[in-house]
Amino acid sequence: MVQSLDRAFDVLEVLARAEEDVSLSQIVERTRLPLGTVHRMLSSLIGRGYAVQDRATRLYGPGPMLLEVAAAAARNRRFGLDRIVRPVLQRLMQSTGETSNLLTLQGDEGVYAEQVVSPHLVRMFTEVGQRVPLYCTGGGKAILAGLSSEQFERYLSSTELRAFTPKTLATPELLRVAVAEARLQGYALDDEERELGVCCVAAPLFDRFQRCVGALSISGPTTRLDRARAVALGPTVRIAAAECSQAIGAVGGEGA
Q1: pLDDT, tens digit only, all 256 positions of the chain
Q2: How far apart are CA 165 and CA 43, in angstroms?
Q3: Residues 6 or more apart from 209 whose CB is under 8 A from it?
């Protein structure tokens, strides 16, 4: 019984991952299962609505029940971003000693949705619910790095880049360079760009459609979290963000 289930899932995964309908021989090749076994699995899947066969081409594809079940599962609270992120934020704070944050994308701004505060007496604290610009915050720049080039350029064309500090990247040229670097590294920095004495490192979050929906970040005073330490912690934040992305259905490794 367990072996039959495994084989049915092998066939189903081939159908779900194929960009177009596939032939019986292609399914046999990709699953490395016997022809008779694949044919039986397909018959069962078609009977339950998880697969379909085109009468004209005789090719096979995913059935409507697969979408129905996936959509129902996606509504389960297990896949809620806040539920998934909270324990990861806790671990980030414990491993770095700095305040960890979830910034979500709402329109052309970021909104602090979750936070685990550092135990240090001198620490960063941003009220949950506060809206912030994307271009001058670590989480915001991570989100910009997670957008497509077209989306990023639309953001630039509709946003006034005001300097909050002497270090704010307040021109499109400077911001383009920073976002390009963030895409390569998988994390973004805020080196006193919104507030002097504050540094932040962040990485983007992606959903099952590979859309950037937010960012994880850690932030702290530059007396502890200077640029060099932020860069050193960048991979840690990137890995944590990739873990959350995969938990909400993103496909791929670090950086989704």
Answers
A1: 567 888 888 999 899 888 899 999 999 999 999 999 999 999 999 999 989 999 999 999 999 888 887 777 666 565 567 788 999 999 999 999 999 999 999 999 999 999 999 998 887 878 888 999 999 999 999 999 999 999 999 999 999 999 999 999 999 999 999 999 999 999 999 999 999 999 999 999 998 889 999 999 999 999 999 999 999 999 999 999 999 999 888 876 444 4
A2: 65
A3: none
- Please provide the DSSP assignment of 74-105 as one string: HTSGGG-HHHHHHHHHHHHHHHHSSEEEEEEE
d(CA 196, CA 157): 27
Q: What is d(CA 170, CA 238) in angstroms, rounded to the nearest whole number?
A: 25
Helix (H) or strand (E) holding 179: helix 172-185
- In three-state form (DSSP H/G/I as H, E/B as E, the rest C), the secondary structure along 116-140 is ECCCCCCCCCCCCCCEEECCCCHHH
**pTM of the prediction?**
0.73
Domains of the chain: 2-74 (1.10.10.10), 77-247 (3.30.450.40)
Residues 6+ apart with CB under 8 A from 153: none
Q: Which two tokens stand for residue 118?
A: 């550092």
